[in-house]
Amino acid sequence: MSEALVLLALFTGFGLGFLVQGVRGAVRALRLTMRGVRVRGVVTERVVGDGRHGGLVVFTDHLGRSLILDPGPYATLCGLPPVGKEVDVVYLRKRPQSARLCSVRHLLAPSFGWFLASTLAFGTGVVVSP
What we know:
Number of strands: 5
Oligomer: single chain
Shape: elongated
Largest sheet: 5 strands, antiparallel
Radius of gyration: 19 Å
Structural class: alpha+beta
């Protein structure tokens, strides 16, 4: 087997895997948007010793339990307002621990990353093959 064919198969496999992950993430975001429970949460500060940026979101689920959502390191890029402001949070009724911010940027950011990686893998496979 030629090296170019092996590389093409390898990058195509990576591209398909990344594409599947992107579709799964988009389906999860759609399911959260359509079937999820939407509540309001308050943005709070992190503990002083925590080196990560961005705030945490404290919200109450449908059973009255207070939960904390960590939107991740790119929370400000995905539309997290300043500390003290309110933000929409969405979660599945059976899994309030899997809550996400209810914004298009925050829900679709992982899928965008997977689709970008898929495009790069497919493009690399095309360029490498003769």
